[in-house]
Structures are given as C-alpha cells and as structure tokens.
Write a structure and sequence with these properties.
422 residues
C-alpha cells in the first residue's frame, strides 16, 4: 500500500514535467540536433586515434611513421570535429523548423549562414574557424532558434515572396526564404558587430562567459547524479528517461566531448568527464539501470516467465539495448526492482566519476560508437584498460545489488505460477 502511494505521488509529480519537456519544441530540437552530430564526433574521433597510438609508442618505427604523417592522418578531424558547431546549427535549425511544420531545408542552410556570421572571426588571411568547432556549440543553439523564429515570424506576417503553385517546389522554397534570409543575415551581422565593439569579444566568447557557471556545474558529480536519478526515475514510470533528460544535458555532454578531443588533438590534457561516451559506456553500460546482471539472473530463474524474458533479453542487453527486460520483466512500476534500478546506477556513477576525477582512469579522448559490448566502448573512449575494469566492477556490483530484490520477485512469480497450475 505504501509503495503504491509513493508511486502515485511520484507519478503525479513527474508526468507533467516530463510531458512539458517532451512537448517543448525548442528543447526537443536542440536534443535532436545535438544527437545528430554524434556520428560526426565518432568519425572525427577515429582520425585523432593516431595521436593516442603515437603517445603509446614513445619510439620506434610505428611512432616515427605516425609522427611523420600526423598532418595527413588527422587531416579529416579539422573538417569533422573542427566544424562541429556549424553542423549542429544546421541540424538544430532544420529540426526546429520541421517541428513548426516548415519543411524546406532552406531554413537549415540559413541557420548555417547565420552561425558562420556569429561565430566566424575575420582575420587578415581569411576566417578564423576556432568558434565553428566545439567552442561554438552553444552559439549554434542561439543561431538556430534565432533564425527559425525570425523566419517563422515573417512567414506568419506574410513578409515573403509567394510564387504560384505551378513553380517547382525547390524554386518556390528558395524565393519564399529570400526575405527571411536577408533579415536573418542583417540581424546576425548587427549582433556580431555589437559583441566586438561593445563587449570587446566575439559573440561565442560572450555566450560562453555568460554560460560559464552552468557549463562548469554540469560536469560535477552532483549534477551527473541528478541526471542519472531523473533518468532512472522516468524509466521506472514507463517514460524513456534518456530521451527526456538528454534534452537538457546533451548539449553539455557533446560540448565536453568535443572540447576534450580538441585539447587532446592539440597536445593538451582533457578536463571533462561527463560526455556521451561516459554516460552510455560507463554509467549506463548494457542500458539504463545496468541490467545485464539482472538478465543473467533471470535466465537462471526457476520462474518460467522470468526465465523466458531473460533468454530473450540477453543478446540485446550485451549490446546496450535493454528495453526487452525493462518492458518484459517488467521493471516499469515493479516495486521489487525500484530500489536497485533507480539507486544502483547512482553508486556506479560515483565509482566511475571518482575513478576519472582522481586520475585512476584516463578521461574521455574520443567518442565511441553506441551499442558496443560492455567495456569496449569505455576502452575506445579512454584507451585506458582500467576503464574496462571499472565497467566490470560496476556490472558485478549491480548484479549483487539486484540479487536480493530479484529473489523476492522470483519468489512472488513462482507463487503465481503454482496457483495457475492448481
């Protein structure tokens, strides 16, 4: 009865907040756009691995070959991670426009132009693209929202060129976006000029100086614990936790990853811990709730229902897809699993964070692909074997944490199955 009352109260409190986040167009567009650049970060990460291998081999033919060809081997990184905020601006703008029913890809292109104006720095030799990389990611959010909202306002006020329906759609879209593009470029130029003349800094620097407290806070243990707690709590009530919470933390995590890669490429020491790789490969290994151990326990269960779910879930769980066990056990609204599922990952988060923060495990220097077996993503992210050890310690801990709660759930299931056979 008490469990049911607690669940009702939490559900009543969480559902409205979750629904607002899911329905907020700007937050969802930011999330969609930021997630869209993750493959670019992954690909870019591949082209900085030669630096890591060069550091592993301090001398010898492998070291010499990489050192002599480093510019060529890392060349593509300058056009992937080096222009990351430009791609993010396009994807965020395109996503937000589509959420408003503005289907033309012209709006994404306009956003990219606005972002270059706001973030590019004119020099005697051309354009300095420093802020078109990781340091301009938060500016890309502003570029996208500004562009789409100005364009939407002009469309609603009919301040556009409307050609007959007989005109090909591509031509019609181009002319329809002509006046909004001009207006957006004028506004971006004014903002960029004022930032330099009044603020004595380029616009992305101004943005980062304002956001500095928030940016620093998100990379702290308390902030990450809040993210994990809310993620697990939302999952428990049947809502896709990462899909909702990432609307807030994804821009920070992606920025941290891109900055780490940028610093590492330049020969510096990375500073950030909370990246996409850290979230999915360390503190959510095998899926939200780190459920691989639970799945193994279910596979060995005498309860037929749990045994069947465990066997179906084992392969997906190895590759980080644990929806089968979350919905199949089910974990959702299951009072037996509430404590380990929601609070166990908090302990794992503390373990992983402390291991990195103390220097025991190397910090993220790459963004690994998703859906990798446990430990592999952590190694690719850090190139440190101790990261793999931390992952497996976490898996063992979570298995032990789940065990007594699983046994209680199993006992309850066995009673139900025995009653059915009577």
């Amino acid at each position: 009865m008490k469990n049911s009352t607690l669940q009702d109260k939490l559900s009543k409190w969480l559902m409205p907040i979750a629904n607002k986040v899911e329905n907020q167009k700007h937050l969802q567009a930011i999330k969609d756009g930021m997630i869209a650049v993750v493959p670019i970060i992954i690909v870019g990460s591949l082209f900085i691995l030669p630096i890591a291998f060069m550091n592993l081999f301090q001398s010898g033919p492998i070291h010499d070959f990489i050192a002599n060809n480093l510019d060529v081997l890392t060349y593509s990184d300058k056009f992937t991670n080096g222009l990351l905020s430009l791609y993010a601006a396009f994807f965020i703008g395109d996503s937000l426009a589509k959420k408003y029913g503005m289907k033309s890809n012209q709006y994404g292109i306009t956003t990219a132009i606005v972002h270059v104006i706001l973030s590019g720095v004119i020099t005697e030799t051309g354009i300095d693209i420093t802020y078109l990389g990781a340091q301009g990611l938060f500016t890309s959010i502003i570029s996208a929202i500004l562009t789409v909202e100005v364009t939407r306002f002009m469309i609603n006020k009919k301040l556009v060129i409307k050609l007959p329906d007989s005109v090909p759609q591509m031509v019609g879209d181009s002319f329809n976006n002509l006046f909004p593009m001009v207006m957006n470029i004028i506004i971006a130029t004014v903002i960029a000029s004022l930032a330099v003349k009044v603020g004595d800094m380029v616009f992305p620097q101004l943005v980062m100086s304002i956001l500095a407290p928030a940016v620093k806070t998100m990379d702290t243990l308390p902030a990450i614990l809040i993210v994990i707690f809310l993620t697990q709590l939302l999952w428990f009530f049947g809502l896709h936790g990462p899909a909702i919470t990432s609307a807030v933390w994804a821009p920070f995590a992606i920025t941290y990853a891109a900055e780490n890669i940028e610093v590492f490429t330049a020969g510096g020491t990375p500073e950030h811990i909370f990246t996409f790789g850290f979230f999915y490969s360390m503190i959510q290994a095998t899926g939200s709730g780190i459920t691989l151990g639970l799945v193994i326990l279910m596979m060995r269960s005498k309860a037929k229902s749990l045994n069947a779910v465990g066997k179906v879930s084992i392969i997906p769980s190895i590759f980080g897809i644990n929806e089968p066990v979350i919905f199949g056990a089910p974990i959702i609204l299951n009072p037996f699993l509430f404590i380990p599922f929601v609070f166990g990952p908090l302990v794992v988060t503390v373990l992983a964070y402390v291991a990195m923060n103390t220097g025991l495990v190397g910090l993220p220097i790459a963004n690994p692909p998703g859906f990798l077996p446990p430990g592999l993503g952590a190694f690719l992210m850090t190139l440190d074997w101790k990261a793999v050890v931390v992952v497996f310690i976490s898996l063992i801990f979570m298995t032990l944490f789940y065990y007594p709660f699983f046994k209680a759930m199993e006992s309850n299931e066995l009673k139900k199955e025995q009653q059915k056979t009577v």
